[in-house]
UniProtKB/TrEMBL annotation:
NCBIfam families: PRK05305.1-2, PRK05305.1-3, PRK05305.2-5. The active site is at 209 (schiff-base intermediate with substrate). The keyword Repressor does not apply. It comes from Croceibacterium selenioxidans. Its cofactor is pyruvate. The chain crosses the membrane at residues 30-63. One of its GO terms (molecular function) is phosphatidylserine decarboxylase activity. Belongs to the phosphatidylserine decarboxylase family. PSD-A subfamily. The modification Pyruvic acid (Ser) is found at residue 209. InterPro entries: PS_Dcarbxylase, PSD-A. This is Phosphatidylserine decarboxylase proenzyme. It catalyses: a 1,2-diacyl-sn-glycero-3-phospho-L-serine + H(+) = a 1,2-diacyl-sn-glycero-3-phosphoethanolamine + CO2. The record marks 208-209 as: Cleavage (non-hydrolytic).
Length: 250
């Protein structure tokens, strides 16, 4: 049940259930089903109709919105997206997230920080979630290209949307939704001034893409290159914690 408190000592209840379909995707699924039924029933083209019907199920699955159990902790930074950790690099935050805005709200500094990039394939859940709780201070949409989102330069060249969240302690965390080869629409659920909880749904990107997270100064990633992460559940970092973590693929 959504909103139920659960812990690592067995408190709460857990059961499997079918994920819901986000309203943003229902129209696409229904359109796909309608086309499949026309081809299958009216035109009697079974060789094309059945694959189209299977594709319709895939469209609904793409927009699935499963419940997540969000870890609670003041200094935790959670993964904002499902997918593969494809890059962990030291870079300066994008200019759109740097410095104060027109109202004086602080942004990120110009110095290099750790950026963790999460690549979402078409098979991943594409609902994005807030990595921390706080107030949305900035939502900046930048039009651009639609190159492979797995490439490093996609952070600067592709269509993207920057979001800055100010925590209650005044520390700001920025992340960027990046469109990819197939993705053609970044859909925000929030606007400046909104207050969000860690793990809350903040947007989606249609059909394959990437999300970059800019960790605060003095903070290392707790996930490894090549690791699969889950939005709203995987702890990406703990603010102020620096530690080399190694893993072996097997």
């Amino acid at each position: 049940m959504a909103g139920e408190l659960r812990d690592n000592r067995g408190r709460g209840e857990a059961e499997w259930s079918w994920p819901t379909i986000h309203p943003e995707g229902r129209k696409f699924g229904l359109i796909a089903v309608g086309i499949a039924l026309v081809v299958l029933l009216l035109l009697d083209w079974e060789i094309l109709g059945w694959p189209l019907l299977a594709l319709s199920a895939g469209v609904f699955a793409f927009f699935r919105d499963p419940e997540r159990v969000v870890p609670q902790g003041e200094d935790l930074v959670l993964a904002p997206a499902d997918g593969l950790v494809s890059l962990i690099v030291q870079v300066a935050p994008p200019p759109e997230l740097q410095g104060p805005d027109s109202t004086g709200n602080p942004g990120l500094g110009p110095d290099p920080v750790t950026r963790v990039s999460i690549f979402m394939s078409v098979f991943d859940v594409h609902i994005n979630r807030a990595p921390v709780g706080g107030t949305i201070r900035r939502v900046a949409y930048i039009p651009g290209k639609f190159m492979n989102a797995d490439l490093d330069k996609a952070s600067e060249d592709n269509e993207r949307q920057h979001i800055l969240i100010e925590r209650p302690d005044g520390r700001a965390i920025g992340f960027t939704q990046i469109a990819g080869l197939v993705a053609r629409r970044i859909v925000p659920f929030v606007k400046p001034g909104d207050i969000v909880a860690a793990g809350q749904r903040v947007g989606l990107i249609r059909f394959g893409s990437r999300v970059d997270v800019y960790l605060p100064q003095g903070t290392d990633s707790k996930v490894l290159l090549g690791q699969k992460v889950i939005a709203g559940e995987t702890v990406l970092a703990q603010i102020g914690a620096q530690q080399l973590i190694e893993g072996v693929s097997q």
